[in-house]
Amino acid sequence: MTAELEGTVAIVTGAAGGLGRAVVALLRERGAAVVAEDLDPAVEALAADDVATLVGDVAQAATARAAVALARERFGAVNVLVNNAARFLLKPTAETTDEEWDGLMAANVRGAFVHAREALPALRESGDGRIVNVASISGLVGLDAQTAYCATKGAIVQLTRQLAIEHAPAVRVNAVAPGAIDTPFMDPVRALPDAEATMAAIAASHPLGRIAAPEDVAEVIAFLASPRSRIMTGAIVAADGGFTAQ
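RE: above sequence
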């Protein structure tokens, strides 16, 4: 397994965040070269011989085209796309503004769409292209005060299925649907007056009784990005500590 991605070139969006960094690290460990993309210039700290970095807005088609071009220029191909970039919003429907709704839709849904669209020709050329979308339990069930976020992740679930059907067998498209992950996405919860009790309640709501580490979910993404998942396309893999099994 150590070098199972040797010769693979991956684009990872949202690479400066907690999950994104874990994905980049694990793909490299398995032998892949990576284009690490993020709006945050902190992504440049990931640059290495086998990591090319790109600062850009995930929702812009120009950023997606630049990521594909950079992968081809530096590493000669695109085999894997990990659509990980996303924003979170913890607000009930009545308090969600038009601007917040549109901003989440752009970052979470349009970003995945334009990156898939721009990467597909290169992925098809590779003969076994793989797209891994990061969905969420929020795209599978309703959750309090997550109207906009749930809607975006539900869109990612259906985008995954549609792309899988449309582009089989040349490109396989799957998604991981995590539960709570210990990343900056949890910061709005940590800012609540009763943060400690709320975090404990979130952990307890998952049958395994804990919040996932980024590395836990990165393992599932790396599997879906690997040849070991060769029989899978259109799958939504719950990596949620049992949350959606309840």
